[in-house]
Each structure stands twice: as C-alpha cells, then as structure tokens.
Amino acid sequence: MDQVLIFDTTLRDGEQSPGISLDVGEKLEIADQLARLGVDVIEAGFPIASDGDFEAVEAIAKTVRGPVIAGLSRTSFKDVDRAWEAVRHAERNRIHVFLATSELHMKKKLRMTHDQVKGEVAASVARAKGYTADVEYSPEDGFRSDPDFMCEVCQIAVDNGATTINIPDTVGYGLPEDFGKLIGYVIDQVHGEFIVSTHCHNDLGLAVANSLAGVANGARQVECAINGLGERAGNAALEEVVMAIRTRSDYFEGITTGVRTEELARASRMVSRLTGYPVQYNKAVVGRNAFAHEAGIHQHGVLEDRETYEIMDAGEVGQEAAQIVLGKHSGRHAFADSLEKMGLHLQGDALNQAFVRFKELADRKVRITEADLEAIVAEELGTGVVHKFSVVSLDVRGGTVSTPEATVVLSDGDGKVDATAEGNGMVDAAIAAIARATGVSGTVLDFNVSSVTGGGDALGDVVIQLEVDGLKATGRGVATDIVEASARAYLAAVNRIIRMRERPQTRDIEVGP
Ligand code: KIV
Ligand code: ZN
Predict the structure, then answer these.
(1) CB count in 10 Å sphere of residue 409
(2) Ligand 1 atom nearest to 98, measured from its CA
(3) Fewest C-beta atoms under 10 Å: which of 1, 102, 378, 411?
(4) 390-502 is classed in which CATH architecture?
(5) Which of 177, 259, 170, 250 has the alpha carbon at shortest distance from 217?
(6) Phi/psi-derived region of residue 188, left when phi > 0, alpha when psi is between -120 and 50, beta in every other case
(7) Residue nearest to ligand 1 atom 6, measured at CA
(8) What does pTM read for this prediction?
(9) pLDDT tens per residue, range 83-136
(10) For 5-275, CATH number?
(11) Ligand 1 proximity of 98 Cβ (cutoff 6 Å)
(12) Residue located nearest, by CA, to atom 2 of ligand 1
C-alpha cells in the first residue's frame, strides 16, 4: 500500500493541550474542515472522559461524512462500550483502545503485571471487535517499552481483531533512526493483516522527523494534529508531515496522502482561532512568514525564479498572498458568494448579521481579505452556540493624561446591561466595565495581540485566557481597534465561563483500566 493514512487527533490529543476546551459546535466546525481537507481518520475525542466529549464525538459521528470517526478508549469494558455508543452512527467508525506496555507505566501508573496487561488488551480488543470491524490498539509509551514485550502485546491485539497497531512515542523521547527501526521491528515481529501507525510527541522537536522515519520504515498511518497541537510540546504537525511526503516524493517514492493540501492554511487558521493557540510566524508550511522573503538577495532571486528560495508553492498549501476579496461597495450577493467559496454557508438571519458586521468593517478598512472575512464571520457568529452577552456599544476615554474610563452596553438576550469602570489603561478599563456589567470577573492569565493580515490597517486579533473560580476559558476578539478587539475577546471568554458553569466538562479519568 503506497498511501499513508492521515489520522488527525486535533480534537483528542490536541484538545488535551493546556487551556484548550472546545465546545461541541467548535469541534463540529473543525471536524467539517478536516473532512474538507481529506484526512482519513478523525479521532473525535475520548467519549468516557466527560459528557461534553461524548456529545461531541456523537455529533461528529452523526454528521461528518468522509473520514472514519474514531473514539479513544481505555481497556475497561465501560470505556469501550461508551466509545462505541459515541461512534456507532458514523458512516465508518473505529474504536481506538490503548494500554501502556512500558515497565515504568505498568509498575507506577497502572500497577499491573505483564500478564494482566496481556489479558486486558485481549479482552478489550475483542470487545471492541464485537462492535466494529475497525479496531486500533496503541501500546502507550511504546517507544520506551521493551520491544519484545510490546510486540507480544501487539500480536495479542492483532489476534483478537485489531486492524491498526499504533506505536506511540508518548513522551517524545525517540530519535528518528531508532524510532524508524522500531517500526521496522514491529512489522517483522507481529504477524497478520494490520496497518502500522506512528504517534509521535514533540518534546525534543522531533515528532515530524520521527513520524517520517516511521513512514520510511513501513508505517502507513501517521497520527498528527493541525498546528502540531497536543499534550505538552504537542504531536507531529499534520501540515508538515503531509507536505514533507509530497515535496520529497523523490525520497518517499510513490508514497502519497489523500490530503487536499490547498485546505491546509484554512485548517490551521481555524484551529488557531478556535483554540486560541497562535501559530508562530515562522512555523513551517502554515506560518505567515513561511513564504515571505525579507533579504533583498532572496527577493531578487524569487522574482527571477520562485524556486531559487521556495521548495513549495504558497498556493499549494492555501497560503497565497491574502487576496482582496471585497470592499466597502460590495453588496450582499458578492458577500454571500465570497463566503460560499470559502466553505462558509450562511443563510437568513446569520447571513444578515454577518453582512452588517462586514459593512461596519468595510467602513473602517479599505481592503478586506479572505482571512479578515473568515475571522470576522467566525467571531460574530461563533458556531451556532448562543452566547449570553453580546456587545451593543463600547465607549472608551483616556490617554496618558487622564485616567482611562470605559462604558460598555451589552445585550443579555432579554434586554441591555451597562457599566462604567476605570482602569490603568484603555484595555484594562474596557475589561473592568465588562466584568462589572456581566458580574463575571477573574484573572487574565494570558493576553495576546496579533494582526489577522499584514499592513497598517490590519484587523487586530486578541486572544485572552481568563480564570474564574478555577475555570479557565479562552476568548478571541477581532476588530479594527485593539481596545474593541480586547473587549470582544474578554466577553467571549466570559460567555464561555458562563457555559462551563452551566455544563461542567470535568475530565475525571483515572489512569488505570
Ligand atoms: O501519546 C499517547 O501515547 C497517546 C495514546 C493514547 C495513543 O496519546
Ligand atoms: Zn499522544
């Protein structure tokens, strides 16, 4: 088989990144984009982890078509049954069972003997197989396991019906040569019909290199995440794995993926926007500078022949220079048309609302790009989740002489609430006024300002991480003005805290099976 299956775990391992907590609507939006991108498998979540996880996996299984929808499970039957309940409606479904095989994990975390691990894996894979033909088994901490014991457990999984054996480098300890050899060893030692997969963490910055070494040694599935999200330093970045295989087809002879690479940049922007995790400017493939040339010599070379300094075409990954799609004279029709082309299908009230926000923006900003549109529409409409509060108006006064003061008017669905507050700066005043009006105040843990596109008239994009009574939420706001963007970001975080209070999303999973 010369196709490497792309198993996306943005919604499971990626969502385990500190501070990320996506709601069902946001997960559905990402899953739709992953399907548009053409990934083979979407690991939609860990259904036993919380009711929120279960609902999201179930909703994705019911509505997203194309990729296999997988749910993660420990080896207990309770987990396997819950995973099945969540994925059963999918066009094609998979149960992904994991149990560690390293001495350290077995002794310290699981407190299980070798025989117990073998028995658990046999029973749970068989249980999963009773539900679906497509079962994956992962020996967690595989890279640090005794290879012979790990292969013995993998053989048990295959004998009980596992069709994919995924070798995780759970703590990102592997080096490409060793990890590649381990994949070759598993292929030699474990017999039967199954696909070998990689799952590499990035603790030493080697997740992509290790995954590619796995592919070179026979792995035909790579587990990865958009923008490299995941526990700690993250997982292998999907966009880098895919583009390495494509760009170095001379090395990966005949090996391909089914990914529509022109969708990579949009997927990256969407995941960044919804998770609140910014993409570093110089990030390979999807960073905003990935195709920018600064030095005069480079610019000259690229003008003569793009290939002097570029090994990929920006258009190939959907990163063509931000095109101007609309301006202040564009009508509703052109607006709706542009959104459709970007895969945003809005109708009725939602379209009207987005059009009003677009017109406001067009009055202040001459050139509106695809990235601007995406950010503004998404921020305005969210994912169909009803927000408790929305901004009606914001008035901020002050500067270096007088104490900054802000007055905010918010709609709370039933009517309007307003408040005025002072702060040590205009952003601080706006945030204080919102806190007073909503009755929700906490600690701002993180405050990040960037611009959606380049240029002096770029939209300001603010991400705020807020902690209120132990609950952490991220909010994002986009506007031509940084103070307004900050206020919108703070309010988005407040709305999310309110939803979390109404619906706790606890992840109270024990480590053992
Ligand atoms: O890193 C890991 O080992 C995992 C497994 C659940 C596959 O995420
Ligand atoms: Zn992982």
Answers:
(1) 15
(2) 6
(3) 1
(4) 2-Layer Sandwich (3.30)
(5) 177
(6) alpha
(7) 98
(8) 0.83
(9) 999 999 999 999 999 999 999 999 999 999 999 999 999 999 999 999 999 999
(10) 3.20.20.70
(11) yes
(12) 170
